[in-house]
Amino acid sequence: MTTSTGPRGAVRSDRVGAVVLFALAVLYGLDASRISYSFSSDPLGPRVFPLILAGVLALLSLIYFFRPGGSEPWPKGRLLASSIAVPGLVLVATILMEPLGFALAVTLLVTGVGRIFGASWRLALISGAVQAALWFVLFRYLLEVYLPGGSVFGF
Amino acid sequence: MDLSYLWTGFSVALSPMNIVIGFVGCFLGTMIGALPAIGPINGIALLLPIAYTMGLPAESTMILLAGIYSGAEYGGRISSILLNVPGDAGAVMTALDGNPLARQGRAGEALMISGLSSFVGGILGVVGLTFFAPLLSGLAVGFGPAEYFVLMIFAFVTLGSMVGSQPVKTLIGCVIGLMLATVGLDATSGAYRFTFDEPELGDGIEFVVLVIGLFSISEAMLMLEHQASGGSVIRIAGRTFARWADIVRCTGATLRGSVIGFVVGVLPGTGASVASAVSYTTEKRISDRDGTFGKGDVRGLAAPEAANNATAAGAFVPMLTLGVPGSGTTAVMLGALMLYNIQPGPQLFAERPELVGGLIASLYIGNVLLLIMNLPLVSLFSRVLTLPNWILVPGILVLSIVGVYSTHASMLSILMMLGIGVVGWLLRKLGFDMAPIILGFVLGRVMEVNLRNALAISGGDLSILFQSSISIVLWIMAAAVAVLPFVLSWRARQVRAAAPQVP
Question: DUF1468 domain: which residues (chain A) (predicted)?
Answer without folding.
Answer: 16-148
